[in-house]
Write a structure and sequence with these properties.
By secondary structure, the protein is α/β, with parallel strands linked by helices. It is 43% helix and 15% strand. Keywords: Monooxygenase, Oxidoreductase.
Length: 332
C-alpha cells in the first residue's frame, strides 16, 4: 500500500499564543491555510470552542468565511460545529451561505459535545435540559434543511436548501461512530485528545456501516497531533507548548498557548506528567523521516482513509514550517 497516496489535512483551533492578540491569531491561521493549500493538504478544518482564552474559533462559520476568501482550492470546514449549541436551521443557513460563496469547498463536521464548560454551555443553549442527547434528532433536522425535501410550503434554509454539503460526524467515543455508521456518513475520530476509544470506535463504525446516498463505503479520518522539525530535539522542544496546553486543561487553567520550555519538570508533578503522556501517546514529534514512519504506522494500524494533523506550536512560522516539512516527505 502506498501510504503517500493517503490525503493529509489540517485541524486548526485558531490558537491564541502567549503574546499574540486574537486578531493576530486569526491572521496567523489564515496564513497557515494559504501555506498548506500550496503544500498539497486536502482540507482545513476549524473547531468550535467557547470561553477559552487560547482559542479564537468561537464564531466558526465567520472564521471559515474569512479564510475561504483568502484561499482558492483547499476544502474548508468545521471540525466541528457543536450542533447542540445551535438551531439546526441556523447552521444550515450559515453553511449554505459558505457553500454559495465557495462552491464545492465546504465540509460540515458535527460534534455533540459543548466545546466548553457547563456554565458557558448553559449560556449558549439557554436550556438546562439540552445535554446533547437529542443530537441524532438535530442531525435529522439539519439534513432535512439542507435537502430538497422541504417542498414548496416547508421551511427552507436560504441559502442551504438543496445544496450538496458533505456532513461528517466527529467523535472521541463510540457514540458518534455508531451514529455515523447508521447514517452512512463519514467519520472523524479525535485521537489528538482522546486516543483511548480510537480502536473501538473504528471497529464499531466499520462493522455497522450502512451505505447511503452520501457514502457507499466507510470513510475514516484520524486526527492526531504532529510536530515536525529539522531535528528531534527541536521538535520535542516545540512540543512542550502542546504538553503545557494539556497541563493547563487538566488544571482548569484557561491560558493562551504557552511558549515552549526547555524544562517541563519544573511545571508539572509526576502524576500529571503520567496522565498527560497517556493522553498524548498518539502524538508524533520528530524529524520528517520519523514523522513519515509514524504516520505510515498509524495508517497501518487504523486503516485510516485520511489523516488530519493538529499542530499546537506557539510560533506561527514554526507551525507553517512543520506542515511544510511533512508535506515534502509525504507528497513529493
Amino acid at each position: 500500500m502506498n501510504h503517500t497516496k493517503i490525503p493529509l489535512s489540517v485541524l486548526d483551533l485558531i490558537p491564541v499564543g502567549e503574546g499574540f492578540t486574537i486578531a493576530q491569531a486569526i491572521e496567523n491561521s489564515t496564513k497557515l491555510a494559504q501555506a498548506v493549500e500550496a503544500f498539497g493538504y486536502s482540507r482545513y478544518w476549524v473547531a468550535e470552542h467557547h470561553n477559552f482564552s487560547g482559542i479564537a474559533s468561537a464564531a466558526t462559520s465567520v472564521v471559515l468565511s474569512y479564510i475561504g476568501a483568502k484561499t482558492k482550492t483547499i476544502r474548508i470546514g468545521s471540525g466541528g460545529i457543536m450542533l447542540p449549541n445551535h438551531a439546526p436551521l441556523v447552521i444550515a443557513e450559515q453553511f449554505g451561505t459558505l457553500e454559495s460563496l465557495y462552491p464545492s469547498r465546504i465540509d460540515l463536521g458535527l460534534g455533540r459535545a459543548p466545546g466548553t464548560d457547563r456554565q458557558t454551555m448553559l449560556a449558549l443553549r439557554r436550556d438546562i435540559h439540552n445535554d446533547g442527547s437529542d443530537f441524532p434528532l438535530m442531525l435529522e433536522q439539519l439534513q432535512y434543511f439542507l435537502s430538497d425535501r422541504a417542498g414548496t410550503k416547508g421551511i427552507k434554509a436560504v441559502p442551504g436548501y438543496g445544496l450538496d454539503i458533505p456532513i461528517w460526524l466527529l467523535g472521541s467515543s463510540t457514540f458518534s461512530a455508531q451514529l455515523a455508521a447508521e447514517k452512512g456518513l463519514p467519520f472523524a475520530f479525535a485521537s489528538h485528545f482522546a486516543p483511548d476509544a480510537m480502536e473501538d470506535a473504528i471497529r464499531l463504525y466499520r462493522a455497522n456501516f450502512k451505505p447511503s446516498s452520501a457514502l457507499q463505503e466507510p470513510y475514516i479520518i484520524i486526527c492526531i497531533n504532529v510536530i515536525c522539525a529539522e531535528t528531534t530535539e527541536q521538535a520535542h522542544y516545540l512540543a512542550t507548548s502542546e504538553l503545557q496546553k494539556f497541563l493547563h486543561l487538566q488544571r482548569g487553567d484557561n491560558s493562551p498557548l504557552s511558549k515552549p520550555t526547555h524544562d517541563m519538570s519544573r511545571l508539572w508533578e509526576s502524576w500529571e506528567e503520567k496522565s498527560i503522556r497517556h493522553k498524548t501517546r498518539e502524538s508524533i514529534w520528530g524529524t520528517p523521516a520519523f514523522v513519515k514512519e509514524k504516520l505510515e504506522s498509524l495508517i497501518e494500524r487504523t486503516g485510516a482513509n485520511e489523516v488530519m494533523i493538529n499542530s499546537m506550536i506557539h510560533n506561527p512560522e514554526d507551525r507553517i514550517k512543520s506542515y511544510e516539512l511533512i508535506s515534502k516527505v509525504w507528497f513529493e
